[in-house]
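yo, DUF3078 domain-containing protein is done. seq:
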Amino acid sequence: MKKNILLLLSLLCILSLKAQDVITTTSPTAVNDTVGPWTKKGNASLLFNQSTFSNWVAGGENNVSGNLGLNYDFNYNKGDWSWDNKLIASYGIVKTKTSAFAKKTDDRLYFNSVLGKKATERWYYSAFVNFRTQFTKGYLYTKDEAGEHREEYTNFLSPAYLYAGIGMLYKRDENLKINLSPVTSKFTFVDKAFTLPNEEYFGVKEGKTMRYELGFNASMYYKLDVIANVQFENILNLYSNYLEDPQNVDIDYQLNIVMRINRYLTTNLMFQTIYDDNAYRGFQVRQVFGVAANYGF
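structure:
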Protein backbone atom coordinates (compact mmCIF):
# COMPACT_ATOMS: atom_id res chain seq x y z
CA MET A 1 0.00 0.00 0.00
CA LYS A 2 2.79 2.45 0.94
CA LYS A 3 4.62 1.58 -2.29
CA ASN A 4 1.54 2.51 -4.32
CA ILE A 5 1.26 5.89 -2.58
CA LEU A 6 4.96 6.58 -3.13
CA LEU A 7 4.58 5.66 -6.81
CA LEU A 8 1.79 8.20 -7.29
CA LEU A 9 3.66 10.94 -5.44
CA SER A 10 6.83 10.18 -7.41
CA LEU A 11 4.91 10.61 -10.67
CA LEU A 12 3.69 14.02 -9.57
CA CYS A 13 7.21 15.04 -8.51
CA ILE A 14 8.58 14.09 -11.94
CA LEU A 15 5.89 16.15 -13.64
CA SER A 16 6.72 19.02 -11.31
CA LEU A 17 10.38 18.96 -12.34
CA LYS A 18 9.43 19.01 -16.01
CA ALA A 19 7.21 22.01 -15.40
CA GLN A 20 10.03 24.21 -14.12
CA ASP A 21 10.66 25.41 -17.68
CA VAL A 22 7.07 26.62 -18.06
CA ILE A 23 6.80 30.38 -17.51
CA THR A 24 3.64 31.70 -15.91
CA THR A 25 2.83 35.16 -17.18
CA THR A 26 -0.50 35.76 -15.43
CA SER A 27 -0.68 36.28 -11.69
CA PRO A 28 -3.91 35.12 -9.97
CA THR A 29 -3.70 38.15 -7.70
CA ALA A 30 -3.43 40.62 -10.59
CA VAL A 31 -7.07 41.67 -10.48
CA ASN A 32 -8.38 45.08 -11.47
CA ASP A 33 -11.78 46.72 -11.74
CA THR A 34 -11.92 46.16 -15.49
CA VAL A 35 -11.30 42.41 -15.37
CA GLY A 36 -13.23 41.72 -12.17
CA PRO A 37 -12.48 39.16 -9.46
CA TRP A 38 -14.03 36.16 -11.26
CA THR A 39 -12.20 33.88 -13.69
CA LYS A 40 -14.39 31.42 -15.57
CA LYS A 41 -13.38 28.85 -18.17
CA GLY A 42 -14.52 25.45 -19.30
CA ASN A 43 -14.50 22.83 -22.00
CA ALA A 44 -17.18 20.48 -23.34
CA SER A 45 -16.07 17.45 -25.34
CA LEU A 46 -17.65 14.59 -27.29
CA LEU A 47 -15.77 11.37 -28.05
CA PHE A 48 -17.40 8.99 -30.54
CA ASN A 49 -16.32 5.60 -31.84
CA GLN A 50 -17.97 3.13 -34.20
CA SER A 51 -16.74 -0.15 -35.68
CA THR A 52 -18.45 -2.44 -38.22
CA PHE A 53 -17.24 -5.83 -39.50
CA SER A 54 -18.46 -7.98 -42.39
CA ASN A 55 -16.84 -11.30 -43.29
CA TRP A 56 -13.79 -10.17 -41.34
CA VAL A 57 -11.79 -13.36 -40.89
CA ALA A 58 -9.57 -11.88 -38.19
CA GLY A 59 -12.64 -11.46 -36.00
CA GLY A 60 -14.40 -8.44 -34.59
CA GLU A 61 -17.66 -7.27 -33.10
CA ASN A 62 -19.84 -4.41 -34.31
CA ASN A 63 -19.99 -1.67 -31.71
CA VAL A 64 -20.79 1.98 -31.17
CA SER A 65 -19.71 4.12 -28.22
CA GLY A 66 -19.73 7.73 -27.13
CA ASN A 67 -18.54 9.84 -24.23
CA LEU A 68 -19.71 13.34 -23.30
CA GLY A 69 -17.65 15.40 -20.85
CA LEU A 70 -17.63 18.78 -19.14
CA ASN A 71 -14.71 20.38 -17.25
CA TYR A 72 -15.51 23.81 -15.82
CA ASP A 73 -13.67 26.17 -13.43
CA PHE A 74 -15.03 29.31 -11.81
CA ASN A 75 -12.60 31.00 -9.43
CA TYR A 76 -12.68 34.17 -7.33
CA ASN A 77 -9.64 36.20 -6.26
CA LYS A 78 -9.83 39.58 -4.56
CA GLY A 79 -7.68 41.02 -1.80
CA ASP A 80 -6.88 38.32 0.74
CA TRP A 81 -9.71 36.02 -0.39
CA SER A 82 -9.53 33.13 -2.80
CA TRP A 83 -12.41 30.81 -3.79
CA ASP A 84 -11.69 28.04 -6.31
CA ASN A 85 -14.41 25.83 -7.78
CA LYS A 86 -14.14 22.93 -10.23
CA LEU A 87 -16.94 20.89 -11.81
CA ILE A 88 -16.27 17.70 -13.78
CA ALA A 89 -19.12 15.71 -15.33
CA SER A 90 -18.89 12.89 -17.84
CA TYR A 91 -21.03 10.08 -19.18
CA GLY A 92 -20.29 7.38 -21.74
CA ILE A 93 -21.91 4.21 -23.10
CA VAL A 94 -20.99 1.38 -25.46
CA LYS A 95 -23.28 -1.04 -27.31
CA THR A 96 -21.92 -4.18 -28.93
CA LYS A 97 -23.80 -6.49 -31.26
CA THR A 98 -23.68 -9.55 -28.99
CA SER A 99 -24.60 -7.78 -25.76
CA ALA A 100 -28.23 -7.46 -24.71
CA PHE A 101 -27.53 -4.18 -22.91
CA ALA A 102 -25.81 -0.88 -23.51
CA LYS A 103 -23.10 -0.55 -20.86
CA LYS A 104 -21.53 2.46 -19.22
CA THR A 105 -17.94 3.33 -20.00
CA ASP A 106 -17.93 6.47 -17.86
CA ASP A 107 -20.29 8.02 -15.32
CA ARG A 108 -19.23 10.62 -12.79
CA LEU A 109 -20.19 13.92 -11.23
CA TYR A 110 -17.40 15.71 -9.33
CA PHE A 111 -17.45 19.09 -7.60
CA ASN A 112 -14.67 20.63 -5.50
CA SER A 113 -14.76 24.02 -3.75
CA VAL A 114 -11.97 25.58 -1.66
CA LEU A 115 -12.31 28.91 0.17
CA GLY A 116 -9.08 30.55 1.32
CA LYS A 117 -8.09 33.56 3.46
CA LYS A 118 -4.48 34.64 2.89
CA ALA A 119 -2.06 33.96 5.75
CA THR A 120 1.26 34.52 3.91
CA GLU A 121 2.22 35.16 0.30
CA ARG A 122 1.29 31.65 -0.85
CA TRP A 123 -0.44 30.06 2.15
CA TYR A 124 -4.13 30.44 3.01
CA TYR A 125 -6.37 29.36 5.86
CA SER A 126 -8.84 27.12 4.05
CA ALA A 127 -12.20 25.40 4.17
CA PHE A 128 -13.23 22.95 1.48
CA VAL A 129 -16.17 20.86 0.26
CA ASN A 130 -15.88 17.96 -2.17
CA PHE A 131 -18.81 15.99 -3.61
CA ARG A 132 -18.78 12.92 -5.88
CA THR A 133 -21.43 10.62 -7.27
CA GLN A 134 -22.73 9.15 -10.55
CA PHE A 135 -25.69 9.98 -12.78
CA THR A 136 -27.38 6.68 -13.56
CA LYS A 137 -27.77 3.09 -12.44
CA GLY A 138 -24.84 0.70 -12.44
CA TYR A 139 -25.15 -3.07 -12.87
CA LEU A 140 -23.36 -6.32 -12.16
CA TYR A 141 -23.44 -8.52 -15.28
CA THR A 142 -23.58 -12.32 -15.48
CA LYS A 143 -23.93 -14.69 -18.41
CA ASP A 144 -25.26 -18.25 -18.63
CA GLU A 145 -26.90 -20.53 -21.18
CA ALA A 146 -30.11 -18.49 -21.03
CA GLY A 147 -28.27 -15.32 -22.00
CA GLU A 148 -26.92 -12.20 -20.33
CA HIS A 149 -28.37 -10.90 -17.07
CA ARG A 150 -27.80 -7.81 -14.99
CA GLU A 151 -28.46 -6.85 -11.38
CA GLU A 152 -28.74 -3.24 -10.23
CA TYR A 153 -25.90 -2.36 -7.87
CA THR A 154 -25.53 1.44 -7.82
CA ASN A 155 -27.59 4.51 -8.68
CA PHE A 156 -27.58 8.30 -8.48
CA LEU A 157 -26.46 9.26 -4.92
CA SER A 158 -25.79 5.58 -4.14
CA PRO A 159 -22.97 5.85 -3.44
CA ALA A 160 -22.35 9.56 -2.99
CA TYR A 161 -19.34 10.98 -1.13
CA LEU A 162 -19.25 14.31 0.67
CA TYR A 163 -16.04 15.68 2.23
CA ALA A 164 -15.87 18.86 4.32
CA GLY A 165 -12.85 20.12 6.25
CA ILE A 166 -10.62 22.96 7.37
CA GLY A 167 -6.86 23.40 7.11
CA MET A 168 -4.24 25.19 5.05
CA LEU A 169 -4.02 25.81 1.31
CA TYR A 170 -0.76 26.29 -0.61
CA LYS A 171 -1.41 28.14 -3.87
CA ARG A 172 1.52 28.93 -6.15
CA ASP A 173 -0.85 29.98 -8.94
CA GLU A 174 -3.99 28.70 -10.66
CA ASN A 175 -2.06 25.66 -11.93
CA LEU A 176 -0.62 24.36 -8.64
CA LYS A 177 -2.67 24.05 -5.45
CA ILE A 178 -2.21 21.80 -2.41
CA ASN A 179 -4.82 21.68 0.34
CA LEU A 180 -4.08 19.99 3.69
CA SER A 181 -7.05 19.41 6.01
CA PRO A 182 -6.24 17.62 9.29
CA VAL A 183 -9.90 17.87 10.36
CA THR A 184 -12.10 16.44 7.61
CA SER A 185 -15.51 14.81 7.84
CA LYS A 186 -16.39 12.23 5.20
CA PHE A 187 -19.98 11.14 4.58
CA THR A 188 -20.85 8.13 2.41
CA PHE A 189 -24.51 8.06 1.32
CA VAL A 190 -26.24 5.01 -0.15
CA ASP A 191 -29.69 3.61 -0.82
CA LYS A 192 -30.41 1.20 2.04
CA ALA A 193 -32.12 -1.18 -0.41
CA PHE A 194 -28.65 -2.08 -1.76
CA THR A 195 -26.82 -2.54 1.55
CA LEU A 196 -25.23 -5.90 2.38
CA PRO A 197 -24.16 -7.77 5.54
CA ASN A 198 -20.76 -7.07 7.12
CA GLU A 199 -20.64 -3.53 5.72
CA GLU A 200 -19.80 -4.90 2.28
CA TYR A 201 -21.64 -2.10 0.47
CA PHE A 202 -19.16 0.82 0.49
CA GLY A 203 -18.64 0.41 4.25
CA VAL A 204 -22.27 1.24 5.15
CA LYS A 205 -24.05 -1.05 7.61
CA GLU A 206 -26.96 -3.13 6.39
CA GLY A 207 -30.22 -1.16 6.52
CA LYS A 208 -28.45 2.20 6.99
CA THR A 209 -28.10 5.04 4.51
CA MET A 210 -24.91 6.77 5.69
CA ARG A 211 -21.40 6.13 6.99
CA TYR A 212 -19.46 8.84 8.85
CA GLU A 213 -15.68 9.16 9.07
CA LEU A 214 -13.34 11.74 10.59
CA GLY A 215 -9.83 11.99 9.26
CA PHE A 216 -7.03 13.75 7.40
CA ASN A 217 -7.43 14.85 3.79
CA ALA A 218 -4.71 15.98 1.39
CA SER A 219 -5.51 17.10 -2.13
CA MET A 220 -3.41 18.40 -5.02
CA TYR A 221 -4.30 20.04 -8.32
CA TYR A 222 -1.51 20.41 -10.87
CA LYS A 223 -1.85 21.45 -14.52
CA LEU A 224 1.02 22.00 -16.92
CA ASP A 225 1.86 22.29 -20.59
CA VAL A 226 4.41 19.54 -21.16
CA ILE A 227 5.15 20.58 -24.75
CA ALA A 228 3.32 22.79 -27.25
CA ASN A 229 -0.38 21.81 -27.51
CA VAL A 230 -0.07 18.99 -24.93
CA GLN A 231 -1.58 19.66 -21.51
CA PHE A 232 -1.56 17.47 -18.39
CA GLU A 233 -4.13 17.97 -15.61
CA ASN A 234 -3.50 16.03 -12.38
CA ILE A 235 -6.00 15.74 -9.51
CA LEU A 236 -4.93 13.73 -6.45
CA ASN A 237 -6.90 13.14 -3.25
CA LEU A 238 -5.69 11.19 -0.19
CA TYR A 239 -7.81 10.44 2.88
CA SER A 240 -7.04 8.64 6.16
CA ASN A 241 -9.83 7.77 8.61
CA TYR A 242 -8.80 8.44 12.23
CA LEU A 243 -11.69 6.34 13.57
CA GLU A 244 -10.93 3.07 11.79
CA ASP A 245 -7.83 1.63 10.08
CA PRO A 246 -5.99 4.95 9.57
CA GLN A 247 -3.19 3.07 7.79
CA ASN A 248 -5.58 2.25 4.92
CA VAL A 249 -5.27 5.48 2.96
CA ASP A 250 -7.96 6.13 0.34
CA ILE A 251 -6.50 7.26 -3.00
CA ASP A 252 -8.26 8.97 -5.89
CA TYR A 253 -5.98 10.06 -8.75
CA GLN A 254 -7.16 11.54 -12.05
CA LEU A 255 -5.01 12.36 -15.07
CA ASN A 256 -6.51 14.24 -18.01
CA ILE A 257 -4.25 14.65 -21.05
CA VAL A 258 -5.34 16.89 -23.90
CA MET A 259 -3.34 16.91 -27.16
CA ARG A 260 -4.66 19.71 -29.32
CA ILE A 261 -5.02 19.13 -33.07
CA ASN A 262 -6.77 22.41 -33.86
CA ARG A 263 -9.30 24.74 -32.26
CA TYR A 264 -12.08 22.17 -32.20
CA LEU A 265 -10.37 18.76 -32.32
CA THR A 266 -8.20 17.14 -29.66
CA THR A 267 -6.91 13.72 -28.72
CA ASN A 268 -7.98 13.07 -25.12
CA LEU A 269 -6.72 10.53 -22.59
CA MET A 270 -8.56 10.26 -19.28
CA PHE A 271 -7.11 7.98 -16.62
CA GLN A 272 -8.38 7.45 -13.08
CA THR A 273 -7.41 5.02 -10.34
CA ILE A 274 -9.12 4.66 -6.96
CA TYR A 275 -8.17 2.73 -3.86
CA ASP A 276 -10.92 2.53 -1.23
CA ASP A 277 -11.05 -0.72 0.72
CA ASN A 278 -14.66 -0.01 1.76
CA ALA A 279 -15.71 -0.20 -1.89
CA TYR A 280 -13.21 -2.74 -3.30
CA ARG A 281 -10.08 -4.33 -1.85
CA GLY A 282 -7.78 -3.38 -4.68
CA PHE A 283 -7.23 -0.65 -7.25
CA GLN A 284 -10.11 0.43 -9.46
CA VAL A 285 -8.90 1.67 -12.84
CA ARG A 286 -10.75 3.62 -15.54
CA GLN A 287 -9.28 4.80 -18.84
CA VAL A 288 -10.89 6.55 -21.82
CA PHE A 289 -8.98 7.45 -25.00
CA GLY A 290 -10.12 8.96 -28.26
CA VAL A 291 -10.37 11.91 -30.62
CA ALA A 292 -12.84 14.49 -29.34
CA ALA A 293 -14.77 17.43 -30.68
CA ASN A 294 -14.36 20.29 -28.19
CA TYR A 295 -16.02 23.55 -27.40
CA GLY A 296 -14.22 25.93 -25.05
CA PHE A 297 -16.01 28.66 -23.11
